[in-house]
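Limitations
The structure tokens in this dataset are predictions for the assembled complex, not deposited experimental models. Users should treat interface geometry with appropriate caution, especially where small molecules or nucleic acid strands are included. An illustrative entry is reproduced here so readers can see what is and is not provided.
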Amino acid sequence: MLQRDMTDLTTQSETKRAPTSADVARLAGVSQTTVSQVLNGKAGVARIASETRDKVLEAARQLGYTPNHAARSLRERRTKLIALILPTIDNPYFSDVVNAAQEAAREAGYAVAVIPIRAGEEFRVSTFLQGAACDGIIVAGHDNCSSPELQILRARGLAVAVLQERSPDPAISSVSVDLAEGGYLATHHLAGLGHRRIGHITERLRPAADGRSRIDGYRRALAEAGLFFDPALVVVTENSMAGGAAGLDRLLEADGEPATAAFVYNDQLAVGVLARLRERGQRVPEDFAVVGFDGLAIGAFTAPPLTTVDSPRGALGRLAAETLIRAIETGADVGETHRLPVRLEVRGSCGARERPAP
Amino acid sequence: MLQRDMTDLTTQSETKRAPTSADVARLAGVSQTTVSQVLNGKAGVARIASETRDKVLEAARQLGYTPNHAARSLRERRTKLIALILPTIDNPYFSDVVNAAQEAAREAGYAVAVIPIRAGEEFRVSTFLQGAACDGIIVAGHDNCSSPELQILRARGLAVAVLQERSPDPAISSVSVDLAEGGYLATHHLAGLGHRRIGHITERLRPAADGRSRIDGYRRALAEAGLFFDPALVVVTENSMAGGAAGLDRLLEADGEPATAAFVYNDQLAVGVLARLRERGQRVPEDFAVVGFDGLAIGAFTAPPLTTVDSPRGALGRLAAETLIRAIETGADVGETHRLPVRLEVRGSCGARERPAP
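Predicted assembly:
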């Protein structure tokens, strides 16, 4: 037994010699200076062509190379701090996620710093994110998650987990809620109540290659109910209460037979939709039915109370923190994918309060 | 002229020799080891009696002593990051403050990290706040601002500014909005509309030695209108929408002639108040008038839209960041006090839409 184990160890150490920056340079076809500039965060990195940078990152990934200094820093100078990069903190959705992430982190002895980085802004937070000041980061927001800086941080040995987005790298864990299922539940419910013209008021229409967006579920439920998907009933608007009000106006002014119901991107937009329906003298749910998404506290206090897809915000934040901390503490590339289930919370705005959900 | 200047310089350098840790130890009557433990953040600090710690901090403050290592670290290793310690990010009030602080910081080349620390939690965020990972901190929340850790960070040479609280130290700048004036404007307005029994639904009743809380303005407006201050009409509740609903119930069940109006601590509570009034079949503003505080976006979308004291959240966040960055970059103890004015935003919930505000 011992003999056998030792042989394995020898074999392993021979085949698995730790890769060096020279190996990375050779595989990428660049100089060691360039490798160091990309992976050590030296000043020159901004001037390196993006193809070169990508070649270095890909080579480092293939070889499993982590710069020594980053590894040493992580081992010796644990900051016990994790950073949570969010596209915005304007939506209370994120405060629920942050609170839960923070609670899970605290249980494991970590603190959480929230860094809001809006779409289009530079993902560059001084030395903070360069591995010196935190042990790992949780990233949300499409632009943040697809940023080359994220890959650079990962390549430098920082633990990373992605929230509610596709992971840009199989080694990076991803934790999300099932948006498509939510879109399906909301639309299926409205179709079951007899609505034939169901609109979708949304914040964005990004091509979701994985078919896992709200609108994918919306289309699936329409098809199942034998309803025609009419692009005129899909309205893209700004992600705010005012955006919801403007979106409702546009939906009601769309060509063709008017919509009698809408599945709305999130509860914040839905608050604006309800207010504008009131201003237009339309009764909810008698004249128009509304279903939101997120399950925010405000939904219980609107007039009428809002039917919504309850997203497990707390579980999402907790799982993201736990997954990240596991990656920090084991030093392993976990690459887990978690997708949490959602459920429909039926209140007054859909008109089904009297009858059970279909 | 030159002669004169040189004399002054000589005098200054003689009288103003940089204080050493030995001077601090002498003045505080403790050992240099103790001074070092308190001011350099060594592990032992938690075991030092709080009186001893206070003596060291007071001596360091009196002498203007800053540990060399902290000063050097600040000069040489600027992180270009500022931390914003908030008691919660649940209230959209804070996201408006954060967005503006972040914008001002970005203009000056700084990034912002938000660290939520709830009341009762430990103000100890690993090495992050020990002067190594950020250049300065903006602190909000009573417990955070009165924390001894804040004084320790300050004494270690970190720039500090306090948001919406009394500064615990004359050298620490404070930036706030005029809460008492807001309470006065709201209550004065309701009294001007003929209300004689005006309640106050609030989140807390902390003795405000400086007379600058919302309730001080509420009492001043009542007195001015010749109205009796009735403690039975002041209801303390949880700081949430559900708390607002519960507070309204308690206000309406209070002894004596019932209230016909309420000045509510913030818009979040007021959303709950409006929803509960609707549930109780009371018309707003005909049966009951409501004025909130903060000026959040939601107030334009409630039924009816909410009259509120508009707090300059953006200006507050911006000024806090600018004040802190000035302290970071000049290295000077600024100790500025800013108190920003508020204004009443009249909408439908107070019943004054038809008539001009008094």
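Some entries come with short summary sentences. For this one: Chain B has two domains: 77-177+314-340, 179-312+343-350.
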